Amino acid sequence: MTVSRIVENLPAHVVYGAPGYQTLDIHTVLAGDLMSDILVSVNTDALLVTSLATEQTVRSADIVGAPAILLVNDKLPLQSMKDLAIECGITLLATPMPMFETCITLGCLQQSDEAY
């Protein structure tokens, strides 16, 4: 699934879009608020779903190779988080949906993409 498809199908908006973010392919979703759990992931090209609107989230996404972060629960990043995302080339998205509902919706999107 692509980032543009995620934005279209979730009530989500782009806080910062790295160059070419619309066609960025997402193969896996990593969801969690414990960055130590995220850091043990070996999945690249993953969307990081979290409610932590901190610079540490961007640093963790950069380490695991996640090209995009989706902030849930109506969290918006501080300017310092946005600046770091720009520096690292990581797309930032935000949604008012809670983590559980977001993950269910993303799972359905991913399954519908696999059916085609």
Describe the structure.
This protein has one domain: HprK N-terminal domain-like (Udp-n-acetylmuramoylalanyl-d-glutamate--2,6- Diaminopimelate Ligase, Chain: A, domain 1, 3-Layer(aba) Sandwich), CATH 3.40.1390.20. It has helices at 3-9, 35-39, 55-64, 79-88, 99-115, and strands at 13-16, 28-31, 46-50, 68-71, 91-94. Strand 2, helix 2 and strand 3 form a beta-alpha-beta unit. Helix 3 (55-64) packs parallel to helix 4. The chain is of the alpha/beta class. It contains five helices and five strands.
Q: How is the largest sheet built, in terms of strand order?
A: 1-5-4-3-2
Q: Provide the helix percentage.
A: 40-55%
The largest pleated sheet is described as: 5 strands, mixed
How widely separated are the two ends? 11 Å
- How much beta, percentage-wise? 15-25%
Which structural class should the secondary elements be placed in? alpha/beta
Tally of separate domains: 1
Counting DSSP H or I runs of 4 or more residues, the number of helices is 5
CATH C-level label: Alpha Beta
Task: Give the CATH superfamily.
Answer: HprK N-terminal domain-like
CATH architecture: 3-Layer(aba) Sandwich
Q: Would you kindly provide a brief summary of this structure?
A:
The chain is 42% helix and 18% strand.
Throw out a few tags for this protein.
5-stranded mixed sheet; 5 helices; 116 residues; alpha/beta; Udp-n-acetylmuramoylalanyl-d-glutamate--2,6- Diaminopimelate Ligase, Chain: A, domain 1
